[in-house]
Structures are given as C-alpha cells and as structure tokens.
C-alpha cells in the first residue's frame, strides 16, 4: 500500500511545477485552435464517416474515427474549465461547436443527395446508446487525458479515438435529419452527448488527480460536469433496460420459430436481424428452403408470435432456394 501511495504522490507532484502547467496550457491551446487544418480534418473525416455509414462499412468508419480531431478541443475545454483558463475554455468550446455543426450539416447534405431511405446496421446501431457507451466514453477519455500528460503513451490516441467514436454519431444525426428520421437523430444526439460529457469528465478527473489544477478551483466545474453526466444516466439506463428486454425477446422469438413451428422444420435459418426503430419491430430472416414460402404462412407465423410472446412482429423472409443437382449418368456413357 505504501508503494502505491508513494507512486500516486509522485504522479500528482509532476503537475505542481508552474512551468509544466503553462506548457500543458500552451499545447492544449494550440490543439484547440479553430484553423484551416482543423476544419479540413473535420470535413474530411465527416465525409468518410458518412459514406462509410451509408455503405455499412465498418472499416471505412474506423478510418474516419482516426482522422477526426474532435478529441483535441474537448481536452482543451476540460482543462480550461478545470483551471479557470477562460481563453482556453472559449477556444475549445468554439472549435468543438463549429466542428459539430459543420459535421451535422455536411452529413445531412450528403444523406439528402444520396437519398438512401433504408439505413444499415452501422447507422441504426448508433441510435440507442446505453450505460455501456457512457462507460466506454469515460474510459477512453481517461486514456486521452493521461496520454496528454504522459507523452510516452501518446500512440494510444488512435485506439482511443476508435473506441469513443465521436464523428459517426454526428454523421448519424445528419443522416437522420436528411430523411426526417427524428428517432434516429435523437438517439445519435444522445450518444454524442454521452461521449462528449464522458470524455470531458474523465479528462478533468485525470488532470485534477495529476496535480495540474487545485481542488478548490476545480470543485465548481467538476460538479457541473458530474451533474450533466448524471442527467444522461436516466435515458441511458432506460435504453439499457430496453436493450436487455429486446435481447430477451429476440431469444424467445428465435426459440419459438425454430422449436414450435412446422414451417421452420422445413427451413434452414441462416441469420436474423431485428429493426426496433419501427412499430411493430421488423425481423429480417435469411433462410434456405426447398419450397416457396407463402404470405399466408408468414401471417400465421406473425399471429403465432403475438400469442406466444405477447409482442407483435413483422416478419420479412429473404429466401435462398435449395436445389439438388446430380450428375446425369446417361451423359457419361
């Protein structure tokens, strides 16, 4: 315990040197500057992320996360609030606000031009944030803040940017607005705010623990950050409970279809995907079948699920026909 306490005291003492504090403030001020390079990276990463979301490509979206510079002004904003540096706080806030608005507007324009109405799983997956996303944001923000005061681990910032994913939620907001999908935009907005507050709170905590700000001066901004984050816990907790409920319903639906219906005894279920953003939820089932599936069978299955689970579903079958092909013995002779 003594060894751990000594290491913690040494960790805090690193930030007590005024020269180090001034150097950190100067670096954060430079990173939070709203200049041409920052705007270029914002627009480029937004375009990449938007096209990646529309193409439902995880690899492209990851590339946009690495390029996006939004993590930098958030750190400046956090330290400016913590240390009472009004210039740094305003500059970080301005860069963050301008970058956010530009990303939403560009994504909205691109979504309107492309005109895809049915969004894929990468977009829909950012419409229902939960407490898990808040935990990811807090952890990633802690790493980002620690990397700033420990240059040896600055290489971890790329992985941190991928983990917390600031740009894709902004693009999802714009895409939702382009198609007047308000539930998608609201959910993506909640995810973005979750990431923003989680990073800000954790960065402030790391800077405070490292001794770069006094507890007396940091008490008020830290209280505000905690209060705003606590407000988000309510909708995130509701979403988390709904996520668990949806997982239970999907398991019950799958078991009911596979084990208690005659239709699925003649089918091979390859995969299933549920869209919970519509009412009733749509279940897309990829199956292989030797026989065609009729709309009457689907209606009976929907009625069966309503009785068994107590939740209406709209079933959509994507059928791949199975055909047996054997060699013709007469063609060999």
What is the rounded Rg? 25 Å
Largest sheet: 3 strands, mixed
How many β strands by DSSP? 3
Basic shape: elongated
Order of helices and strands: HHHHHHHHHHHHEEHEH
Spans where pLDDT lies below 50 across 5 or more residues: none
Mean of all residue-level pLDDT scores: 83
Structural class: mainly alpha
- Terminal CA distance: 86 Å
- Spatial order of the strands forming the largest sheet: 1-2-3
Give the helix level as a range of percent: 55-70%
Q: Please, how many helices?
A: 14
Percent range for β-strand residues: 5-15%
Main attributes?
333 residues; 3 strands; mainly alpha; 14 helices
Describe the protein in words:
Strand 2, helix 13 (295-309) and strand 3 (314-321) form a beta-alpha-beta unit. Strands 1-2-3 form a three-stranded mixed beta sheet, covered by helices on one side. 70% of the residues lie in helices and 8% in strands. Helix 3 runs antiparallel to helix 4 (58-67), helix 3 (36-55) runs parallel beside helix 6 (86-114) and helix 8 runs antiparallel to helix 9. The longest helix has 45 residues, at 215-259. With 333 residues, the chain is mainly alpha-helical. The chain is built from 14 helices and three strands.
SSE blueprint:
Layout lengths: L1 H12 L4 H14 L4 H20 L2 H10 L3 H13 L2 H29 L6 H4 L6 H19 L7 H8 L2 H12 L3 H28 L5 H45 L7 E9 L6 E8 L5 H15 L4 E8 L7 H4 L1
Parallel strand pairs: 2-3
Antiparallel strand pairs: 1-2
Describe the structure concisely for a colleague:
The protein has 14 helices and 3 strands.
């Amino acid at each position: 315990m003594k060894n751990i306490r000594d290491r913690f005291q040494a960790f805090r003492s690193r930030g007590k040197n005024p020269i180090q504090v001034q150097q950190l403030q100067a670096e954060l001020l430079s990173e939070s500057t709203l200049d041409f390079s920052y705007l270029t990276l914002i627009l480029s990463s937004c375009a990449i992320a938007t096209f990646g979301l529309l193409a439902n490509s995880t690899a492209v979206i990851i590339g946009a996360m690495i390029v996006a510079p939004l993590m930098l002004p958030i750190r400046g904003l956090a330290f400016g609030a913590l240390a009472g540096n009004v210039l740094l706080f305003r500059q970080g806030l301005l860069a963050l606000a301008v970058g956010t608005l530009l990303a939403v507007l560009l994504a909205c324009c691109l979504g309107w031009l492309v005109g895809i109405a049915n969004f894929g799983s990468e977009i829909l997956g950012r419409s229902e944030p939960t407490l898990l996303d808040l935990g990811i944001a807090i952890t990633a923000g802690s790493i980002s803040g620690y990397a700033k005061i420990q240059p040896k681990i600055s290489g971890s910032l790329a992985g941190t940017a991928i983990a917390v994913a600031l740009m894709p939620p902004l693009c999802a907001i714009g895409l939702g607005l382009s198609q007047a999908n308000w539930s998608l935009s609201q959910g993506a907005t909640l995810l973005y705010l979750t990431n923003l507050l989680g990073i800000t709170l954790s960065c402030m905590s790391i800077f405070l623990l490292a001794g770069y700000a006094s507890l007396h001066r940091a008490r008020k901004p830290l209280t505000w950050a905690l209060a705003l984050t606590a407000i988000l816990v309510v909708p995130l907790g509701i979403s988390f409970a709904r996520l668990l409920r949806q997982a239970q319903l999907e398991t019950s639906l799958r078991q009911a279809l596979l084990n208690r219906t005659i239709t699925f005894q003649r089918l091979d279920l390859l995969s299933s995907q549920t869209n919970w953003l519509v009412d009733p939820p749509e279940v897309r089932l990829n199956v292989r079948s030797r026989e065609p599936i009729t709309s009457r069978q689907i209606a009976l299955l929907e009625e069966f699920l309503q009785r068994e689970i107590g939740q209406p579903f709209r079933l959509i079958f994507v059928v791949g026909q199975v055909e047996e092909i054997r060699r013709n013995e007469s063609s060999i002779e």
